[in-house]
Amino acid sequence: MLKHRCPWCGEWLPGYELHLDLISKLVELKDPPSCHNCKNVYMLHGISKQHFLKVELKVIIFGVLLAVAVCFWTSIKKDINMLWGLFLIMGILFVISEIILFKQVPFERLYNRKDNSIFSFLRKQKVSVNIQWISKKSSGLWRPQLQVQDGEIFPAYFKDTEGNLISSGLCVVLEEIKWTGKRQCNCEISFVRDDISAERYFQKGNHLYLYYYDRQIAEGIVL
Q1: Is residue 58 part of a domain?
Q2: Which terminus of the chain has fewer CB atoms gathered within 10 Å of its CB, N or C?
Q3: At residue 50, what are phi and psi to the nearest 5 degrees?
Q4: Is residue 108 part of a domain?
Q5: Which contacts of 120-126 are long-range, i.e. CB under 8 A and separated by 24 or more positions?
Q6: Model pTM?
Q7: Could you give the number of structural domains in the chain?
Q8: What is the three-class DSSP state of 65?
Q9: DSSP 3-state assignment of 17?
Q10: What gap in Å lies between CA 150 and CA 190, rounded to an integer?
Q11: Could you tell me the residue range of the domain that residue 79 belongs to?
Q12: Are 91 and 145 in a shared domain?
């Protein structure tokens, strides 16, 4: 599971905020969570959340079928203690799966309709890129297909077509991810910050290098 960044400024978000959606439903928080750095509010990324809700539904269906099978089996054995024990184990596994699923989902901006900042989002320049993810043995991610979801944010360094470094670490958000292999995908990227002009960096043929903490995890090219 990856640690996520703020969709407004790109700074790390504390781990305790990763379950904001689930917790807010339980305790009915009135105010949405905000970034400790830029103070802007955010929410779970909609597309990634929908994906994991589908996975969660499959988990629930599997759990129900398993429960029916357990009930049938224990009715034959007539061991009620074993039945309660199995239900307890299933409950624990369900809670663990919930935490894992929601920790996988990155965040997106939560806009106030009265705030003009929503227009900056509509004007954001995007570009298509092809990304090759580095193997785990070479400091890459374990399983990028599972770990990287729509809305994930990574610092990126850009080089022009001649191989010259033209940027420091600029946070980009990956969206519309289409996997073409275990460690290769096509997607759209845009800069997290609104004050960055994308024209220089989004030239066809430019290369970008994605980082997680202090290690390079992927290399891409602007299409």
Answers
A1: yes
A2: C
A3: -60, -40
A4: no
A5: 120/194, 124/190, 124/191, 124/194, 125/190, 125/191, 125/198, 125/199, 125/202, 126/175, 126/188, 126/189, 126/190
A6: 0.79
A7: 2
A8: helix
A9: helix
A10: 12
A11: 47-103
A12: no
